[in-house]
Amino acid sequence: MKSLLTMIFFSILFAGSNSVFGQNHQSGLPQKLAGYIGSKPDYAKTKAGMITLRAANVPVVGVATHRASNEFAPENTLSAMQISLDLAVDYIEIDVRQTKDGKSLILHDGNLNRTTTGEGPLKELNFEEARKLSAGLWFNPFFEAEKIPTLEESCQLLSAHNNISVQKTYLYVDCKDINVKVLIDLLSKYKLLEGSVFYVSEQQIEQIRTLAPNAKMLPALHSPKDLDRMIDTWHPYALDTNWKDLSKELIEKAHAKGVKIFSDGFGDNQNVDSYVQAIKAGIDVISTNKVSVICEAVEKISK
C-alpha cells in the first residue's frame, strides 16, 4: 500500500510540475528512467522540495548537483544529468577528460576502475574502446547500458532542456583534462557558454579566455587571505571557497567586488544546519550530493 501511494504521489507531482517549471511536458525523463526513479520515495521528496524552493520567498541560493544527480543515478552519466534537469537545478557539475585519441568524455577519476567496467587510465584508451564500457553497472544493474558520456552528448541534453524550459540549467565544468578549443566550441554551439562556469586552475584561466574572453571563471580560493589577490589578478565570475572558510564577512567582501561565492557542501558539511548558515551568510551556489538538504534548509529559513 505504501509503495502504491508513493507512485500515485510521484505521478501527481510530475503532472503538477508543468506550471512550476514552465515545461510543455510532464517530465523530461525518458519513460524507462521515470519508471525507475518513480519507485524511489526520496526522489519524490526531493522533487517536491525543489518545487517549493523555486516558489519560496526566501534568500535565493543556486543549486548545483555534484557529478550530476549521483544520489539517484551513476555519477557523471546522462541519466544522472537527466534527473538533475528534471529537478530544475541551476548547474550540473561535470568532469571533463580526454581519451588517447583526443575525444572529450565525462569522467571524474583519471582511472576507470571505480565507476566503469574498465581498468587503468582513460587516457590510455581510444574513444571506441572507452565507449564499450559500462559506466553504470557498479551503481545498479538497471544502469548497465549506461556509457561514459561525451561532452557533446551532455551539451545536447542541456540545450534541448533549455529550449523548452523556463528554468535554465548550465554546466559547472571541472576542467580536469580539457581541449580548450573543443570545450569552448561545443558550449558555444549549444548556447551554453554564456551561462556555464569553469572550475579552473589559475594556469587554465588565460587559456580559456584566449578563445572565450567572457567565460565565467571559477578558480579555487584556497585561503581567505588570498581573496583580494585572486579577484584583482583574475577578475573571476566566482570563487570556489572551502566550506570551512565561509563567512558573512568574506561573502560580502567578494560581493562588493562583483564576485560570487560557490562552495561544495559535502561530507560532514552536507546537513541542514550548515546549509542554513551558508545561505544566511549569502552564499550564491551550493554544490551538493543531496539536493533535498538544500530544500530542507530553504524550508527551515522560510518558517
Please describe the structure with a list of short key phrases separated by commas or semicolons.
303 residues, alpha/beta, TIM Barrel, 8-stranded parallel barrel, 12 helices, 42% helix, globular, disordered N terminus
Q: What would your notes on this structure say?
A:
- The model is unreliable at 1-26 (pLDDT under 50).
- Helix content is 42%, strand content 14%.
- It starts with a helix and ends with a helix.
- An eight-stranded parallel β-barrel has the order 1-2-4-5-6-7-8-9, surrounded by six helices.
- The protein has helices at residues 2-21, 31-37, 41-55, 78-86, 127-130, 151-164, 180-189, 202-211, 227-234, 248-256, 272-281, 291-302, and strands spanning 62-65, 91-98, 104-106, 170-174, 197-200, 216-221, 238-241, 260-264, 285-288.
- α10 links the parallel β7 and β8 (260-264).
- It has one domain (53-302): Phosphatidylinositol (PI) phosphodiesterase (TIM Barrel), CATH 3.20.20.
- The chain is α/β, with parallel strands linked by helices and 303 residues long.
- It is globular, with a radius of gyration of 19 Å.
- 43% of the residues are buried.
